[in-house]
Amino acid sequence: MIRLAFSMAVFGVIVCPKCREHAQIIELAGAKRTRCQKCGSSLVISKLRLFMTSDDLEEAVSTRTFLQARLYGREQDLEAVFSETPSKEAMDREAVGSGVRTKDFTDRRKPAVHTRDKHLLILDLLRSGGGKMDAVSLKCLAGEHGIEGQRFEQILEKLVLNGEVYEPSAGIICLV
């Protein structure tokens, strides 16, 4: 008689320690390394913090969804989708039941805005102001979005050189 050995898959939920911007599900059996689906970093599985392990894929998906919502500060959206979790307290209770506590994962970083996104953000701020804004107001608005001081000046200079904005008079910035 031939016996086939079937090993039950065990799933783990991790958050990339490099970018801290992506929760993902990994299979724990066999592999020693995995890659972050967001930043592409090579990660050693034995050194990763496992927020939850389970042989039930649906449970792993639920935990991953919770962590991803937590990463992006979107718990309210999650509540709207899952009516069985009507409040943040209920979500916390659910998370504790699956081994994840809200206090286990708190992201205190400012959201990363990539360079091209910063250019687009400044253009969007100008559009929201009717296509014309004084430089001081634009700089203040950009500062609220994490673009401050010299970095703002560099981006504004590039936008002028690229012909995307111009300065019709001193201190006034307009879209082309």
What would you note in describing this structure?
This protein is an alpha+beta fold and 176 residues long. The protein is 39% helix and 18% strand. It folds into two domains: 94 residues, no CATH class; 61 residues, Orthogonal Bundle (Arc Repressor Mutant, subunit A), CATH 1.10.10.10. The protein contains six helices and eight strands; from the N terminus they run βββββααααβααββ. A hairpin with a 7-residue loop joins strand 1 and strand 2. About 3% of the residues have low confidence.
Topology overview:
Layout: E1 11-15, E2 23-27, E3 33-35, E4 42-44, E5 52-54, H1 57-71, H2 75-81, H3 88-97, H4 115-128, E6 132-134, H5 135-144, H6 149-161, E7 165-169, E8 172-175
Antiparallel strand pairs: 1-2, 1-5, 3-4, 6-8, 7-8
Strand order of the largest sheet: 2-1-5
> How are helices and strands ordered from N to C?
EEEEEHHHHEHHEE
Outline the biggest β-sheet: 3 strands, antiparallel
Structural class designation = alpha+beta
Based on CA atoms alone, the radius of gyration comes out at 23 Å
Shape designation:
elongated
Strand content: 15-25%
Counting DSSP E segments of at least 2 residues, the number of strands comes to 8
Helix content: 25-40%
Whole-number average pLDDT?
76
Throw out a few tags for this protein.
alpha+beta; Arc Repressor Mutant, subunit A; three-stranded antiparallel sheet; 6 helices
Give the structure's gist in a few sentences.
With 176 residues, the protein is an alpha+beta fold.
